[in-house]
Amino acid sequence: MIQTYFELYEKGVELIFLKEHYIDTDVYAENMKDKIELQGTDEDEIFKGLNNYFRKLAERQIRIAFEQAEKEVQDLHKRTKEGIETARLNGKQIGQKPGSKLHIKKKAPAQEIIREHSKTFGGSLSDAECIKLIGIARGTYYKYKREIKNF
Question: Cα–Cα distances in Å, from 67 out to 48, 57, 84, 101, 129?
Answer without folding.
Answer: 28, 15, 26, 41, 55
